[in-house]
Write a structure and sequence with these properties.
708 residues; alpha+beta; Rossmann fold; Phenylalanyl-tRNA Synthetase, Chain B, domain 1; nine-stranded mixed β-sheet; three-stranded antiparallel β-sheet; 16% strand; elongated
Length: 708
């Protein structure tokens, strides 16, 4: 019967193995009754010990026929079908059955065929009587890698491909390395790393490597190089190593200035990090839980050592102190902020890369509220809003550990948001930083925005804080309260200039244009006025008690040690920052396309920047938006200058006549409040009524440009 057949098949199955050393040799004979465990690549689902492959997985059709023990004079049952489905028959009929039903629809993988199986292979849950029976399953396949049962052939092919992309070619139940042939070597910044074929797909591979994040890695390297110039040696941590590319670049270029620790909680990633260290001729110090040993790579002449750890990122940051910590998890990094600020040293740096742009860019607002405790909407300045949202979460996490922050750098690009902050220990810096977390009042009609005033008293009419008069002229509620957000500066000019010098020194070509834009944005000046060494550099090189030697200073760089001296220096820095508070860059920016006038050709962006600068306003471009303008001018003056220097289009000139601005408009005169309102009404009427243009309102109500 069927039970006898199953037992016989099981006994015959012991003779069929997948020896790793004999993948190209013939199968061993039936006399080998107990194969060695080290020769087996397939594991049982319910056991941690190696087992034989399933009987439906064979190399050749002849091997499948051996299981049936075909003889001319006897009827034999099919080894892959139950008795009630296919009765015992003679050899010629059974041969056609095995070939046409099982072998033709098999799935091939590395020389083996996973044939379709009709046996009852999966046990079901016990019934009420406590009996455990076998499930009556239909046709299915057995995975050669993880022993899973898959019904569809197309699903089985996709299942095997996912194993290959993840580097799992043997078993998912123990850590098994993929063969060397499945790796590819990627070179970046004179550093070689091995990656898997599916390295650029997160959550599909253990060693995630994204080539698009090269700019992000260069910016973090420049920040670390600046910190390494302040004090040596510094202990730095790459909390999410993956392939170890970032930590390897730190150790390879900065050498004895840094002590690099690369951490990852995945064992496959830790093994790959160790191999990549050997590939770059680095010594490796392993610290995996209780195990602590050293292994030396090929380059024994190199004295650089990288410590590789295997533990959760929160655990290692709770156990040890670091000068520089970089967090780059998949998605949000808010789950690691508390442990990051717990033991980070004074005047150290914490950098974090957030890739959950769907929530940060207000596409999933409920997720932003859940992760960051912040209410945001989609605005024209949504990228800067994302950076300020992250910094607000960082500020609150640091304040819980009695630490304040100074924002050194905030970059929001297409794929990520990078924030770099310096840590200031003490309750006073923590209080000062916490006071900069405020709410933002945003007008949804004209996109005007202003931070809510400090204080706990409830205002009678919050709309009075907005410069625009949309609430008075429009029905209903026109503004929304966003936040809490970081209201302070997003850049430190002195730190950015030193980062630019490091980028030039190490030949980081991709980071240099962005750093120049960031310096101009921090100083709120145009690129043509930019210079690497400005006369005011000496006063800007003092940051949080750290003095740095610059090209126009002769004193050696030093760090003030001691609690009392550090507190005195910090108090001096606070006074200097209060004195230079007026020089801070204005918050947020305006998009020139968003506020362009219908039927008018707006001026070129660089010319428009000059017009605003001539009007007496601070102005610069921004990296957040290629058509964005960061300026100290209010929105009404921004629109007035834009309207003055816009020219009518050819079609509009014939249809509506030329647009003439009054000759008495002079940049620098004050603009009456009524005139500002009329300009707003002109644009709104322009959208609603086709016959009324901005020119009519401009001729009826002359406007003037005001200086700041």
């Amino acid at each position: 019967d069927g039970v006898v057949v199953s037992e016989k098949v099981k006994s015959n199955n012991l003779d069929v193995k997948i020896p790793e050393s004999e993948l190209e040799a013939e199968e061993k004979g039936a006399e080998e009754e107990h194969p060695r465990e080290s020769d087996s690549n397939i594991l049982d689902v319910s056991s941690d010990h190696p087992r034989d492959k399933h009987i439906s997985i064979q190399r050749h059709l002849a091997d499948l026929e051996k299981l049936a023990d075909l003889r001319e004079d006897e009827k034999k049952p099919c080894p892959l079908c139950p008795e009630e489905k296919f009765k015992a028959c003679y050899s010629h009929k059974l041969h056609r059955h095995l070939q046409n039903l099982h072998w033709k629809v098999s799935v091939e993988f590395e020389g083996y065929r996973m044939c379709i199986c009709h046996l009852s292979c999966r046990p079901v849950k016990p019934n009420l009587a406590g009996d455990q029976t076998l499930a009556k399953m239909g046709a299915h396949y057995h995975c050669i890698i993880c022993s899973a049962t898959i019904i569809r052939r197309t699903d089985m092919i996709g299942h095997i491909n996912r194993h290959v992309n993840k580097g799992e070619t043997e078993s998912r139940f123990i850590t098994v390395r993929a063969p060397k042939s499945s790796y590819e070597v990627v070179k970046e910044s004179a550093t070689d790393v091995q990656v898997l074929p599916n390295h650029s797909t997160p959550q599909k591979t253990d060693s995630y490597f994204n080539p698009k994040m090269k700019l992000n890695r260069q910016l973090i390297f420049c920040a670390l190089a600046v910190l390494a110039g302040e004090r040596k040696p510094i202990e730095c941590l790459d909390a999410f190593g993956a392939t170890g590319i970032m930590g390897l670049q730190w150790a390879k270029h900065l050498r004895s200035s840094v002590k690099v620790t690369i951490n990852d909680c995945n064992e496959n990633s830790v093994t790959m990090i160790k191999e990549n260290c050997h590939l770059n001729k680095m010594k490796v110090k392993l610290n995996i839980k209780e195990e602590d040993d050293e292994t030396v790579g090929d380059g024994e002449e190199n004295s650089d050592t990288i410590e590789v750890t295997k533990m959760d990122a929160n655990v290692i940051m709770h156990l040890r102190s670091f000068d520089f910590i970089h967090l780059d998890p998949f998605g949000t990094s808010v789950n690691y902020l508390d442990s990051a600020f717990r033991n980070v040293r004074n005047l150290g740096i914490v950098s974090l890369t957030s890739t959950d742009i769907s929530s940060l860019y207000a596409k999933a607002q409920h997720v932003a509220l859940r992760h960051y405790g912040c209410n945001i909407v989609r605005t024209e300045y949504y990228k800067e809003l994302a950076a300020r949202t992250i910094i607000a979460a960082v500020t609150r996490a640091a304040a819980r550990c009695n630490k304040g922050i100074e924002v050194l750098l905030a970059v929001a690009l297409e794929h990520f948001v990078l924030v770099v902050v310096r840590v200031l220990r003490g309750p006073t810096p923590a209080d000062d930083s916490a006071k900069k977390v405020r709410y933002l009042i945003h007008c949804q009609w004209c996109e005007e925005r202003v931070f809510q005033k400090e204080g706990n008293m409830v205002e009678e009419n919050p709309y009075q804080q907005l410069p625009c008069d949309c609430h008075g002229s429009m029905p209903g509620k026109t503004a929304v309260l966003l936040g809490p957000l970081w209201s302070g500066a997003l850049f430190n000019t002195g730190f950015l200039r030193r980062m630019l010098l490091e980028a030039v020194q190490y030949g980081l070509d991709e980071a240099q244009p962005l750093l120049k834009t960031l310096v101009c944005e921090a100083e709120c000046t145009t690129l043509k006025h930019f210079s690497t060494h400005s006369p005011g550099d000496e006063s800007k090189q003092e940051e949080c008690g750290v003095y740095i030697k610059t090209p126009n200073t002769s004193a050696e760089s030093y760090l003030v040690h001691g609690k009392r001296k550090s507190e005195e220096v910090l108090r001096g820095v606070a006074k200097r920052q209060r004195a230079e508070h007026s020089a801070e860059h204005p918050p947020f920016y305006y998009n020139i396309h968003r506020h362009s006038i219908k039927g008018m050709n707006m001026p070129k962006l660089n010319k428009f920047l000059n017009y605003l600068s001539e009007a007496g306003y601070r102005v610069s471009r921004t990296h957040f938006d290629p058509m964005g303008v960061r300026t100290s001018a209010p929105l009404a003056q921004f629109k007035t200058v834009l309207m003055k220097y816009s020219t009518p289009t050819y079609v509009g000139a014939q249809a509506e006549g030329p647009v003439h601005l009054p000759g008495e408009i002079q940049v620098g005169e004050e603009v009456p409040a009524a005139a500002e309102i009329k300009v707003e009404e002109a644009e709104l009427a322009e959208d609603g009524k086709s016959g009324v243009t901005a020119a009519v309102f401009t001729q009826s109500y002359p406007t003037h440009c005001a200086a700041d």
